[in-house]
Amino acid sequence: MEVFSDPANIDVYVTGFLWILKLTVAATVGALVLGVLLAAMRVSPVPVLRGFGTAWVNIFRNTPLTLIIFFCYFGLYSTLGFSASDDIDRNNYWLGVIGLSVYTAAFVCEAIRSGINTVAAGQAEAARAIGMSFRQTLTIVILPQAGRAVIAPLGSIFIALAKNATIVGTIGLAETSNAMKDLINANGSAVVLIFLAFAGTFAVVLIPTGYGFGWLANRLAVKR
Amino acid sequence: MSTEAVLYDHPGPRAKMRNTILTVVFGLGLLALLYWIYRRFDEKGQWAGSLWKPFTQSSTWTDYILPGLGHTLAAAAVAMVLSLVFGILFAVGRLSDHWWLRIPAGAVVEFFRAVPLLLMMFFIFFGLPFLTHKPMSNFWAVVIALTLYNGSVLAEAFRAGVKSVPRGQSEAAYAVGMRKGQVMAEILIPQAARAMLPVIVSQLVVLVKDTALGYIISYSELLQLGVNNLSANFANVVQAAIVAALIYILINATLTYTAGWLSRRTRRGGKAPRAAGPVPAGLVQTGETAV
User: Fold this and answer.
1) Predicted pLDDT of residue B277
2) Cβ separation of B30 and A111 shorter than 8 Å?
3) What is the value of pTM for the model shown?
4) How many helices (H) and strands (E) does chain A have?
5) Which domain holds residue A216?
6) B112, B123, B224, B237: which to substitute to probe chain A, counting the most A Cβ within 10 Å?
């Protein structure tokens, strides 16, 4: 246990998980907003919007996240000159949030689209019959029902997002995987303990979260 | 009725006008954004022919991109075979009647599903050598980490597949005198595998994408050779990343398309058990996805 009796090491551990937490929260919000917008685009009457949504999903779903984060750094930051903050960690953090959001939004979009699929066609027909526009049909009738059907898939997407947040370490953020690597290299005798501390924290948080989403999905499911 | 038309009325004159306006406004916005990106790239000289020229030379492909692609596919192929084996073993373990098999198998699957792949890879690559006193090959670090993670995901998929096989199948098998092992191996697993084929293929997409993590522990895959090493010689990191992204998209789009084709094919056969309940009469068409 002596590794974690050193306050400096505890600090490395805590900082790592704080970055993961911040990345996850910010990217969850970003991916949810973007994903719902993309899903609305993909079912909209305007062909250009549909095409844009389809292209987005096919591009980002099929590119490795590592490459997207890499591209955020070299393309967005180095070449296009996008900079969110003068502090290098803050800047990498926001680049990571952007990368995670655009990647995860593709999956959120597809989950919501399959949720829209579970809503009975009669619902949309009834909404149109009483004169609702596309926007009203979607936001008042379809999406609230679809949202309840996609809690379980969205849950696994956001759990995956929390795990994927470690990949932002590629561009130098001292998140958990980099923190673990540094601790392992400095304390070769306590390798297993260090791994169990980091992996165990993920397991202890994410496994109950997964069951929580499952429970919530059951509770809120539209009974048909 | 065509699937798109369920959510909105057939456009009349006003709706047509509105759609045209939206098309023009959004199209112009998109073009403006693309033009801005083009100009920024231009200012930084990223369109210079010398940066793109390497991709027209065969040596660039034979020295960097193709070997990288080969290593990516090799790691993905080995990890896929191993994770299928891992998945079947642990799915069967988790479905066992014996608690001393069921509980450890469940714990292993849940644990490896919850641990980030990169963390696992770092532990195997940097941590294990301290325990074994031997250096770890980066190929095996990538493959083992991918196997543990994707194998656990597949174990859950197989378990769901076995559970989706109608109970009459195993009851009939017991009735003709088969033993538990026979029922599992000859009745349940083949049907589950067929029902889960699309899920398995989309997990393969995840696996191919995740091999890119090997870059971080300097396994010489596509990102390492085709982007890192290539751009070290030609100073064209953005261009190399775009080409690598296109290759990944091509491979994975093909796999995704295959998954969709398989899913349509198995559904048409009508013999495979349905994965989860009746297929709803949908408002839109969707494919299988996995993160």
Assistant:
1) 47
2) no
3) 0.89
4) 10, 0
5) 2-220
6) B123
